């Protein structure tokens, strides 16, 4: 028995760490998607077609697993659930992704990923409005979530409004690229920022609606497959309206195919599923609290792959954002511990009362139900011998 204790302790530790590892891994996946997508967009690929192909790939990959693994536990599809899935397929696959791709095209990959740091704050506000997050100003953990969210927003604003001197980590011949990017960003900076704001609101709304939908349709893989499928259908309709040139749909063995395949498998299929699992366990605010890490990873990859220049303000803002992130996660961890304590205390309560009561019993015989008196127990812990 004694040798099982370390195994049980290790299993318990892994269960507690799994949500954190899952979300950190997703941030690396998203960072790779931002860089690969930026390369394909610079090579002339339409953002509408990229988003559509992304969900074609995701549907092909996820649907078979959902059909096989959840065939016994999949709930019955109803019209209200289906309408929610249709809206989910529009909020993230169509609205969020197309606005984000356009905003990234008009600015830079680093700037766009930094703007995603508004996501925890917007999601936290929406979660409070829909009562998914409870705030008690007398509790330190609640204040930590509020203060951490505010610090995250401040850090994002520092990155956006204060640039400072350029810091060259890698001295290379990327000056021309940087100059071209800067000129394009100056021309479309306001338009790109507005599109990124719309993207953040769409993504936050997606998390909130996904949280409600999982309560009615608790099958993460099946829900993921449905969202990807509806995103594919709705995205195809939008793409056919926005892109009239059918030659733009051609994909070869290049960055276009890589961007569609990578983002479809990692950032739509796997990400939707993992986020659904973590949302059921920790809530939507916990999921979005890790988005600032993606900005740091994207900034590093942007320097290496895209030869983007990093300003001092970006580094300062990143430090502030990560500080706010840790404060929010600390508050959420205290929430989790508090909920576990409440569940244990409820389980330990004995459903025994000292008050005598009467119940109505229908014995199946014609006539009115009989009234049976149940006498009060002398002690809540008294037992009768068999």
TrEMBL record:
Keywords: Membrane, Transmembrane, Transmembrane helix. InterPro entries: EamA_dom (IPR000620), EmrE-like (IPR037185), WAT1-related (IPR030184). Its main location: membrane. Residues 21-159, 191-329 form the EamA domain. GO terms for molecular function: transmembrane transporter activity. The chain crosses the membrane at residues 20-41, 47-69, 81-103, 109-130, 142-162, 189-209, 221-243, 255-274, 286-306, 312-331. It is found in: Membrane. Belongs to the drug/metabolite transporter (DMT) superfamily. Plant drug/metabolite exporter (P-DME) (TC 2.A.7.4) family. This is WAT1-related protein. It comes from Theobroma cacao.
